[in-house]
Queue: 3 jobs
Job 1
Amino acid sequence: MQIALFIIFGLLAVAGALNLLFQRHPINSALSLIVVMMSLAVLYFSLGAEFLAAAQVIVYSGAVMVLFVFVIMLLNAGEEEETRGSRMAYIAGIPGAAAVFCLLTFLFLKEREALGTTHLRDALSGTVSNITEVSHQLFTSFLLPFEVTSVLILVAILGAVVLARKES
Amino acid sequence: MIHLSPIQIFLLLTAVKIAVVLGITLTAVAYTVLVERKVLGRMQNRWGPSRVGPFGLLQPLADGIKLFLKEDMMPLAVERLLFILAPIIALACALISIAMVPFSRQTLVTVGGTSVDIGQVANLNIGLLVILGITSIGVYGIALSGWSSNNKYSLFGSLRASAQLVSYELALGLSLVGVVLRAGSLSLRTIVDSQSAHGALSWNFFGGFQFVAFFIYLMAAYAETNRAPFDLPEAESELVAGYHTEYSSMKFAMFFMAEYANMITVACVATVMFFGGAGSPFGHIFDGFGNGLIAGFLFGAMWFVAKVLVFILLYIWVRGTLPRFRYDQLMKFGWTFLLPVAMVNILATALALAYRAP
C-alpha cells in the first residue's frame, strides 16, 4: 500500500515539477506547484507524519499558493518571454540541477541506515498520534527555536505592514 | 462464493460506504435547494415551487433534468482546461470533506471477518485538519473559474471570493481550537465522544462554554460558503452572477451543488463540534430505544439529521433576513472583530482547562 502510494504520488510530484518548469504561463506553473505540494503531503502522510501532511496542505497549498494565484490574477501576468538571461539559465541550470540531484541521491543512499525507515501501519490505525509527540517536543526541547521563529514571523509581518502603509 | 482477502473486502465495503454517503449527500443537496426555495417563499409571503409533484416535491428532479438538457455554452475567449477544471475542483472539495463526519454512533458491522464502522466513512486522527485543508483547497475552484472565464465580472467575483475565503478561514480555524483543546484530539469521533456524558449539558455549546466560539464559527462559516449576508462574490446587483457568470448547463449546476454541499458540510461540522454530533440531547435516558445495533445507529443518525436540519433552516432564515455586507465592512469585520475574539476565546479556554487540571 505504501509502495503503491509512493509510486503514484512520487511520479505525480515529479511530473508536476517538470510541468512547472515547462509551462509558459505563470498560472499554469503555479497550479503545477500546487500539484507538487499536494503530492508531497500524501507522501508525508504515507510516512506516518500526518500532522506535517495536514500542515503542508493548509499552509502551502491553501494559503501560500492562494496568494501566488491571487497576485498572478490581479496583475494579469502574461506569458513569459525569452531573454538572453533565460538562455544562460538553460545552459547553467540543467547541469546544476543534475549535479544537485546526483549529490542528494548519493547522500540519501549512503546514509540510508542512519536515516531509518517508518511504516504506514501505525499512522492509519489511529493508535499513535504524532501531533501529541510533535507538540511535546516543540514545547519542551525546542521551545527556544520555536519562540525565536515566531518572533521572526512577527518581524516579517511588521515589515510587510511598513511597506504597505501609505506615507501621509 | 468468491473468496476475497481482508484488504479487498475492506476496499469493497469502503467503496460501498462512499457511494451511499455520496448518494445521500447529493439528494440532501437537491432537497436543501427545495427547502430553501419553499421557506424563503413563505418568508416573502409567496408559495415557492408548488407545481411539480405534491407540494413541489419533485422540483429538484425537474431542475436536474432541465440543467442536464441545457446547451453547454463555452465562450471562445476562455482558458479551456481551467474553465472545465474549476467546477470539478469546487464540487470535489465540497464533497470530500463529508467523509470525515461521523453521522451516527460507532456501529461496527462485520462482513467476512472484516468489521467496518458504518457510522462514518473515514475516522482519521487528523480529521478536523483534513476538513480545514480541503476547505482551503476549495478556494481554487472559485479563483480559477473567475480567472479562466476572461470576463471582468467573473474576475471581480473570484477576487472577492478568494480574499474573503482566505480571511475568514483564519477565524474559522481558530474558533475550533477551543473545542479541540477541550477534547484533546483532532479526530471528530473523539470530539463527539467527549460530549456524550450528560446529553445537552455536556455539549461544547452549553457545558463547554464554547458559545462564543460557536458564533464566530457560524459567521465565518457563512462567509466560507459564500452565503448571505456574505454573498459578495456573486452579488447579482453588481456582478451579474460573480464567478460563475460564464458558466451554463451542468458546469453551472456543479457550482450550485458545491455551494449547497458546502452548506451541509459546515452544518455537519457545527453539529459535531458544538452540539454533540449524533448524541441525544437527553443523555442516556432514551437509550432503551437504541438497544439493537441497527436501531442504535438509526437513533443516532436521527438526532444528527435533526441538528443539521436546524442549521440549514438557520442558514435560510439568515438569508431571508439580513442585507449584504459592503466589501470593506466584510474585511473589517473579519480581521478586527472575529479574529481577536477567537484568539481571546482560545486563551480563556486554555486558562480554564489549565486551572481545572490537577
Job 2
Amino acid sequence: MFTEPIDILVLFAVSLPFVGWVERRLHRNFLTGLYAVIGLALSAFRLHPLLSQALRSPVLLPIHAGAYHACLRVDFLGAFMAAVFLTMSLLVAVYSIKYMERDTGLPLYYALLLFMAAGMLGVVFAGDFFTLFIFWELMCISSYVLVAFRKRRWEPIEAGFKYLIMSSAGSATLLYGLSLLYGRTGTLNFVQLSKVMADAADVWGYLTLVLVLVGFGVKASVFMLHQWLPDAHPAAPSSISALLSGVVIKAGVYGIVRALFMVFPPPHFSWPAALAILAALTMTYGNLAAMLQTDIKRLLAYSSIAQMGYILFAVSTATSHGLTAGLLHVLNHALMKGLLFLCAGAFIYMAGTRKLSELRGIGHRMPITAITFTVGALAISGIPPLNGFVSEFMIVYAGIQAGSLPLTGVMLMNILLGFAYYLRLIKVIVWSTPSERLDGVREAPALMLAPMILIALLCVVIGVYPAPFVEAAERAAQAVIHPYEA
Amino acid sequence: MLPHAPWLVWAVPIAGCLLTPILARVHGKLRDWFAFLFAVVSSTFALSMLPDAFYGGSADIQMPWIPHLSLQLGVLVDPLSVFMACIVSFIGALILLYSIGYMAGEEGLTRYYFFMLLFIGGMIGLVMADNLLQLYIFWEVVGLCSYALIGFWYKRPEAVRAGMKAFIVTRVGDVCLLAGILMLYLHTGTFAFSSIREAAEGLDASTLSTVALLMFGGAVGKSAQFPLFVWLPDAMEGPATVSALIHAATMVKAGVYLVARMYTVFPQAHGYLLAVAAVGSATALLASTMALTALDIKRVLAYSTISQIGYMMFALGLGSPGGWFASQFHLMSHALFKALLFLCAGAVIHAVGTRDMRRMGGLRRYMPITYSTFLVGVLSLSAIPPFNGFWSKDLILEESYGLGGSVGLLLFLAGTLTAAVTVAYSIRMLALVFLGEPPSHLRGGRVHEAPRVMTIPMVVLAVLCVLSGFLQAPLAYLMSHIFHSASLPTSLEADILPLSTSLLALAAGGLPAYLVYVRRIVPPERFTHGAFLGAVYRLLLNGYYVDWLYHRIFVNGVAFISERSRRLQTGILNFSMLLVLISLLSLLGLLLMS
C-alpha cells in the first residue's frame, strides 16, 4: 500500500487481536509479544534495501488513490530516522515481553506499539505535509492511549488526558500553518514548496513558519510547549517511556528540521537566531528542573527536554556541521535515554517504586542493570569514550564555528548541570548502601537485560568508533540541506 | 624500542583491566598479581622507549580513526611523552605491588583493580596521544577512574560525595579545555601536536590568548590549582594507594603536562604566561599555609601536592626553556617523594586505623622502616640537600631569580616563602606522627610494621628519592631534543644569592617548627587561640573559606533556581495552553524583529 516496512507493521498490527485470541486459548502469554517482535524485525529487514536505495537518491513512491498528490519520498534523512525508530521499537518490544507480562490487554498494547511505529515511519517517509499529517496523527493517537495504558490508576489517565489536549492543540496549530501554506502556494509537496517558498519571506511567511514550528514544537517539547511531557513520560509504562523519550519526540525534531530546511530555507528565512535562543531556554530549563527531582522517571523526562535543547541548538546553527551533530545526537539520545528508561523500568519492575529515596543502592541487588545504567548515565553526561561525548562535542564545535559563542557557553554550562544530576543519580542507584526494603530484589530477567546490554554496547561502540555513524548522520544532513543533489 | 611499544604501553593495562573480572573468577590472588604483572609489562614497554628518546629519536605513528573528520589515532614518541610514560607506569607498578598488601581483604577488589589498571592505561594514553582530541578523551577517562576510586569505600557517604565533587569540579576545567581545543581546531584545522604550532602562528593575538587561557583552565581543574583546588583535599577519602598514584604522582600532573606540551604553541599569547605563573605561585603559597593546620595526615599531603604542583606551574609560567625543564625535573622528584609519603601514610593508617594526626605519635618506635622512608620523603619534600626535592626546587627558584625584573623577583619571593612554610608543615607532620611519646591506645604492641609487600615499594621509592636528584644532567640531555637550539641547565649554578636565600628560608621555616613540635618549647595549641591567631587558624583550617563560598554560590544557588523553576510546572492545563499561546506570539515577535 505505502512501502513495505510500513505495510508490514500495519498488517501485523491489525492481525494482532487474532493472535491475542490464540494466546488466550493456549495460555501462552508471550505470543503477542513475540508476534510484534517478528513484525518489527521483518519491517526492519525490509527497511534495509530502502536505506541503501535512499543513500543513492531519494526514492519516490506515489500512493495509489491518494488525495492531494500524496506521496512518499524517502530520502536519507527519512531513512536514517526510520532506522533509529525501528531499532528502538524492536528492542523495546523485546523488553516488553517480560516487562508487560503482568498486565492485561497485551494485544492492544502491541497493536498500539506497532501502529505508533508505523506512524513514525510514515512521518519520516512522507513526501508532502498532507501524508505527513495523516501519519502524524496515527502516531499521536497511538501514543495517547499508550500513556494511559494502565488505566486503573489515576496518574496515567490524567497524564494521558493532558498529553491529548496539548498535543491536539499542537496538531491544530500545525494544521492551521499547513492550510496557510497550501492556500498560498497550492501545494504541500516538500520539493515543490522548497522551490516556491524561497521568496515568500514576508509577515505571512513568518506566521506560517511560527505555526508549523509550534505545531511540531509541542511534540519536540520545546520550552513553554513542554508541559505535557513531565507528566506523560513518567506515567506511561517504562517501555513506552523509553520510546516516547527516545524516539517519539524526535519525530517532532524531524518535523522541525524538514520544515525549516526545506520549506523555510535559512538564507531567505532568518530563523537561526530565534531558534538558538529557544534551544538555550529549553536546555537550561530542562536541566534546572531535572536537578532536584525525586522520581527517577520524572528526572529522566526533564533531562529529555534538556537534550532536545541540545539538538535544537545544533539545528539552529543551520550549517552542515551543526545538522550532522544534531542528527547524530538524535541517534545517541535515542539510545542513551532509551537505555536509561529501560533500566529504570527494570528497577521499578523489581522494586515496585519510582522514588529515588526508595531505590537507594538498588544497584547492588541488580549489578548488570546497574552497570548498563551507569554506562547510559555517563554517556548522556558526555564522558568519553561513550557516544554522548561524540555528538555533544560536535554540537559545541558547530556552535563555536557558527560564531554564537555566548550560547555555546550556555550549552557548556548545561553539560555541567546535566553531569551533576546524573552523577547524583549514579550515587543514589550504585554508590549507596541498599536499604532493607530492597532485600528480596534480584537481577532483572534475561529478556529485559538483553536489550539493555545491547544498547549499552552500542553506546560504547559509537563512542569508540564513531566514523560510520557520523558519516550516516552527515549523509542525512546533506539530504535535507541539498535536496536536489543525489 | 620493543616492537609496537608506543601502543602496547597503554593498551596492555587497558586490556588487563578488561581481564580482571575474568581473572577474579579464577582466584582473587591471581587477579591481584596479574594486575601488578600488567603494570610491570607496561613499564617495560615504557622503559624500552627511553634509549630511543634519549638519542633524539622521535616518532609520530598514526592509524585512521574517523577518516570523515580527518582524525587519526596516533601516538607520539618524544622525550616528554616517554618521560611521563615511564613515571606513570613505573610508579603504577610499585603501587599495585603495595596494593596487594594494603588492600588485602577489602570488599570489591575487582572494581579496584579494574579502575587502577584502566587509570594507568588511560594516563599513559593521555601522555602518548599525538593530538588534542585523543588527549581530551583520555583526560576524561582518568577523571572517571579518579571518581570511581575516590568513592571506592562507597559505604562511607563522604567518600561518595568527595568522588562526585572531584569529578564535577575538574569537569568545570574540562569544559573550558574542550572549548579551547575546539576553538583552536576551528582556527587551525588540526588537533595534531606536530602541526599545531605552525598553524597557530597565523592566529590573531586575542583568539590565541582566549584559547590559551581556556586550555589553561582545564589544567587548573585537573591539577587542582587555585581557584579549582577544592576537590583534591576531599579526594583523600579514597584509599591511600589511590591518593598516591592518582592524586599525587600522576593524574594531577596532567595539567602540568598539558601546559608543558603546549609550551611552544602559546608563547606569544598575551597574558598567558603571566597567568600561569601567577596562578602557580599563588597556589603554591596558599596551599602550603593550609597544610600548616590540617589535622588529617592525608590532607596535609594533599595540600602539599597542590602547593608543589603550583611550583611546577609557576616554573612553566617563567616562559624560558630553563623554567620548563625545572618544572619537569620537579615533576619527577615530586612524583617519587609524594608517592612515597602517601604510601608511608597508608602504612601508618593501616596500622593505627585513623587518619587523624592527633591520635598518632611516637610511631618511630613501632614502625622503623616506615619511619625511615617517611623521613626520606619529608627531607625531599622540604628540599634539604642532597635529596631530590632540593635540586629540582632550587632550580625553579634559581630560574625565577634569573628571570629578573619585578615579576621575577616577586615570583622568587613567593617561591622562597613557600619553601619556608613547606619545611614547617613537613616537620609538624613528622613530629605529630612519628616523634614524641605514643598515646596510650597505641602502646602495648598493638601497632606493627607493614608487611614486606608494602615496605618494598616504599624502600625502592626512598632510594630513588636520594638518587634521582643527581639525574639532572641526563634528564637535561633527554629534554634538550625538544628545544632544538636552547641548552638546558645541567646542574644548579649555585648562584650565591638565590641559594643562600633558599637555605635561609629552610632555616626560617624549620627552626620555629622544630622548636614548637619537636622540642615543644611552646605548646602548639597556643597558636590556635587568641583573637588574631585564632582567626588565622580558623581561616587556614577552613581553606580560606573557598569551599564554603563555592557551596553557597554554586550548590545552593543552583538548588535555589532549580526550586524556583519548578513553579513553572503548575500542572494546570489552562496555564499550559496559555504558555503555548505566549510562545507562539513571542516567537513571531522574535522572528519579525530579526
Job 3
Amino acid sequence: MTTARSGTSTMLRLSLLMILILLSGCGLKPWVKPYERNHLADPIMQFSRDPVSSAYISHVYEAREGARGAEGSQGGGCGCN
Amino acid sequence: MRTINLARTMRICMLLLFVAATGAIHAEEISGAAPDFTLKSRSGKNLKLSEFRGQVVMLNFWASWCGPCRQEMPLLDQLYQRYRSMGFTILAVNVEDTSGDALKMLEEVPVRFPVLFDPDNAVSDTYGVEAMPSTVLIDRDGNMRYAHLGYMPGYELDYDREIKGLIRE
Amino acid sequence: MAVIRRKTKRRLWITLIVLLCLLAPLLLLAAVLPEDRLDALYHSYNGVGVEVDGPSILWRKKIGGYSSISANYYIDAISSASIDAVSSASPYKEKRIEKSVGGDFLLNTAIMTLGYSTSDENDFNAKTASFSLSQDMFGDLTTVTMGYVRGWDQIGKNGDPVFSEEANRQSFRIGVSQVMSRNAVVALNLETVTDEGFLNNPYRSVRYLDSTSASGYSFEPEVYPRTHTSNAIALHTRYYLPYRASLLGEYRYFTDSWGIRANNIALGYTHPYRDHWIFDLRYRYYTQDDADFYNDLFPYRQSQNFLARDKELSRFKNQTVGLSVSYEINPKNWKFIDRGSINLSYDHIRFNYDNFRDITQGAAVGQEPLYHFSADVLQFYLSLWY
C-alpha cells in the first residue's frame, strides 16, 4: 500500500522536475536551426521505423517479463510546421 | 483539497490551452525591406532578388526531407500558373548542403518556377528562417509584407488571398 | 488507502495540466501527422514447446489534412503450452484476436491521439481505451507527450462456466524527447501502471513440499494480491553517424509493488546500404529480481498469504541478439503507391532462470535443474506508403 502511494509521489516529483527543466529552457534559442535537421529527418533516425514490428516485439517481451511500460517515444524528426 | 474539482479544472485548462494554441503564430504581417541576395538557380544562372523589383515575389524556403514542403510544392506551382502573367513569381530557396536530393525530388514533383540553392544557409540566416517550410511575400516595392511558418492544408487559400491583394496594389 | 491513492493521482493530473497550460504561450509551431501506410506482418515465436504465430495488419490514412485514422488487426495463434502449464496442467491450442482503432488529431499545435482496442480469447477478454497529447516546443527541439490508458479485463476459465473475474488497469505516462544536436535525439519516458482485481492466471499453481506425495511435492492454486502498481523510467537515444548510419541506445529501470526490480539495456545499429537496403543489428539484456511472494517450492501448504510460481515473477536474465534486413521498392509506374519495403527480422532470445526449476527433469525435490530456454522470433512484413 505504501509502495503504491510513494510510487505515485515519485512520479509526481519526477514529472514536476521534468517540467521545471522544460521551463528553464525558455530563454534558450533553438541550437539546431530548422534547415539543419536533414539528419534528424532521416527515417533511420526515428525511434521506431516500423510501428507494427515494434509493437509486436514489445508484446513478446511484456508477455514473458515482469517489467512493463515506458517504451516508445516520439520526437526528433524534421521539425516541420 | 476536497474542493478541487478535477473535471472543472481540466475543462478550464483545456480551454486555456486551446485558446493559446489557436493564437500561436504561424502567419503574420511583417514589414521592412526584403534583404537582397544573389543565389545560383536551377538553370545555372545567378539570380538576384532586386532584379524582381516591380513584381510580387513569394520567397519559399524548402528542403527535400521536409514532408510539408513536398505537400506544398504542387500547390505553389498552381499559384504560379494562375498569377505569373499579372506580375508574380515564386523563388523557391533550397536550404540543403548539396543539391542532389533536391533535384531528385524536383523530378518527382516538377515545378515551373525558379528554384535557387542556398547551400551555406546565408540567406536562410538573413531571413531568420524559424520553421520548415517558411514563406515570405514581398510586394512590388521590395518590402516584406507577410510571413508564414510551416505548411498546413488550407494555407494555400491564405497565400491566394494575399497574392491577389499585393498584385492589386 | 484507495482514497489516498486517488487523491495523489488527482493532484498529479491537476499539476501537470496546469503546468501545460502555463507553458502554452511558449508553444509555437509543431506537429506533423503520421504518414499514410499499410503494413502486413507475419510473426512467429518459437520457444521450447510453445509456438505462437499469426498476422498483424496495420492501416493508416490521413483524413482532410488535420486528422489521421488507423486500424490494426492482430492474431496470436498459440499451440503447445509453456512449461508452467506442461508441468501441472493440460496443453492447449488457443487463438487470441486483437482489434484496434485509433485517431490522431492535429489541434493546431498539438497532436491528440485516441485509441480503442479489444483482445479476445475463449477465456479472456480485454478492452482498452487510450488518450494522449503530444506537443512540440522550443523551436520544435522538444516534444512533450502525456498519455492515459484505461483497461477492463474479463477473466474466464475453460471447463468452468461459472468462473468469472474482472481486473481493471490504468496507466499514466509522460515523455520528453529532446533534440541534442544535428545528429542526436534523446527521450526520457516515465510510466506508472496500476492494476486492480483478479491478477493471476486461473490455471496456474504453485508447489509445496509434501512428503505424503510420491514426487515429494504437491500443487495448490496461486494467490496474487488484488492490486499491482509499477513504475518505469526509460531513456532512449539515437545518434547519426556521418557516413549515414545510426546508433540506438536504450535503458529502462522498473520497480513495482510486488517487489520486482528490473533493468534492461538495448543497443542497436542501423546501416543503409546502397539505395535500397537497410540492415539493423540489435542486442538487448534484461535482468529482474523476483516478486516478494514468489517461490519455486513453498515449505508447506498455504505458507503465505500470497503465493506465486509464475516464472515471469522469478529472478532471471535474458539476452537477445537480432538482425533485420529491409529492401525498399520505388516503382515509378505504381499509380497509388509512393514506395514500399519488404522486411525480414530475426531475434534470438535466451532466458536463464535463477530460481525457477524445471520439474519435468526428474531430480530430488528442490534440486531440479534451473530452467532455461531459447526462443526464435521471426517477422516477415511488407510496408506500403501511399
